[in-house]
Amino acid sequence: MPDGPYFFLSYASATGRGGGGPDPDMWVGRLFEDLCRSVAELTALPAGTPCGFMDRGPRPGGDWSEQLGRSLASCRVFVPLFSPRYFASEWCGKEWYAFAQRAIRHRAATNRPADAIVPALWIPVPPGQLPLPAEQLRFDHRDLGERYAADGLYGLIKLRLFAEEYHRAVHCLARHIVGAAHAGRVGPGRPLDHRTLPSAFGTAASPRPLRVTVAAPTRDELPEGRDGVYYGQSPLDWNPYHPDTQRPLALVAADIAGSLNYRPTIASFDNESPPGQEKEPPVRPEVLLVDRWALRDENRRARLAALDAADRPWISVVVPWNRDDPQSRAAADELTARTAATLPSRASHGRPACRAAARGVESIDAFEELLPHVVEAAAQQYLRHAPAHPPAGRPPRQRPRLIGPMDHGPEAGHRTAQPHDALDGAPDVEDTDDSQP
Question: Which of 52, 139, 188, 286 could form a disulfide with 315 if both were Cys (CB 3.0 to 4.6 A apart)?
Fold first, then answer.
């Protein structure tokens, strides 16, 4: 990545300036320049190589610049500038997510983590208020100084009294950036369209639970002649995109879910209870990864068909397969027919991304692109179908329904809501206070 910046500084811009006043991001700009000088002193970068990138263009409400997209796709290290405003910014969450996908791809391909995100404290944020992607970073801010850990860079940069602590913190931060760049070189990615990217900070204040379930055979129970290189001693070892990836697909899926502020758990479909006849309330959203070769086992195929018929929309189904696997290509017609017969409702209902995922995902690139949409669809269906739990002290109640046009008598101008059985056929009205689990 010779033309990419050494690091990318991701920050939450202050409110827009008005009336030609001072630059609201002046102090962040000064930090960026000091950090670039420190990184340059610690490296042997060729002359003219960009040391860092800081977006100074228009912010939320506009589009990413072409240079911003290229820099996110080619920088060696991502430096998020922590503050309460940072984690409330969808723009910053998209920047983090775009870089995190490169780190996830590196880990999937090498089975080694890439610690290429080096956080910096602009304004300290209590640990309990960090989203999961930030909470999971292995970084001790006290290494940059006790005063820095307590007050952040913003608390140091504005007072001459703390000039020494500020310069020490910047120098230590630069050393961490250089060390991360050399410890794990994350491969370049392609510039992404920010309009389709999710935020790494999710839509909830705290990490949400998610289950990743795998329906796949073990190496010891493969159909006759099936190559065992894609399998292991457990269904959770299934790696359909080998040799492009060296990491089991369930772990890759968990990494992607974690980058969306979910706290995933992993399980085998073979260990799950078979679907019952009654409709059970959900306990969490779920993503089910199905190996098409597993459908040659009649017992497993019957259980998957029962799940498909059980109307559990909070379980999103993904059917990964490898177009570069000669056996899967040769048996494509048979395996596709088995999938369509076993999971007919998944392939024909729901969002376009969910239908495409159930019909077959033929590459790791397509899997990484589809999975965030599939996860979000499962989460929304979970919220729609999970039991409501009113706040303490409030009695449970049924959702109200509108009962028709407005009256023209003394109560004109007022709509009336009654329980569900008041008027058959009336549309539901979402009660946003009580409908959330």
Answer: 286
Rg for the chain (alpha carbons), in Å?
A: 26
Phi and psi at 121, nearest 5°, equal: -95, 115
User: 113 preceded by cis ω (within 30°)?
Assistant: no
Q: Domains of the chain, with CATH numbers? A: 7-196 (3.40.50), 208-385 (3.40.50), 394-437 (no CATH)
pLDDT in tens, 68-108: 889 999 999 999 999 999 999 999 999 999 999 999 999 99
Cα 383-387-390 angle, rounded to 5 deg? 100
Distance CA 411, CA 193 (A): 52
In angstroms, what CA-CA distances link 352 with 148, 181, 290?
48, 38, 18
In order of 22, 103, 151, 214, 434, the CA distances from 33 in angstroms are: 18, 26, 20, 48, 50
Question: Which residues contact residue 109 at a Cβ distance below 8 angstroms, ignoring those fewer than 6 apart?
Answer: 187, 244, 245, 246, 247
CA distances from 201 to 61, 89, 132, 243, 329 (A): 18, 9, 8, 31, 38
Q: Using CB atoms within 10 A of its CB, is residue 266 exposed (0-12), middle (13-18) or buried (19+)?
A: middle
What length does the chain have? 437
Task: Point out which residues pair with 256 in neighbouring strands.
Answer: none
pLDDT digit string (tens) for 255-299? 999 999 999 999 999 988 776 655 678 889 999 999 999 999 999
The closest alpha carbon to 102, from 8, 168, 222, belongs to 8
Which helix or strand (DSSP H or E) is residue 355 part of? helix 352-359
Question: How many Å apart are CA 265 and CA 374, to the nearest integer?
Answer: 16
Instruction: Answer for the pair 160, 290: CB distance below 8 angstroms, yes or no.
Output: no
Q: Strand runs (DSSP E) across 163-249, as ranges?
A: 208-215
The answer to whether the CB of 431 falls within 8 A of the CB of 424 is no
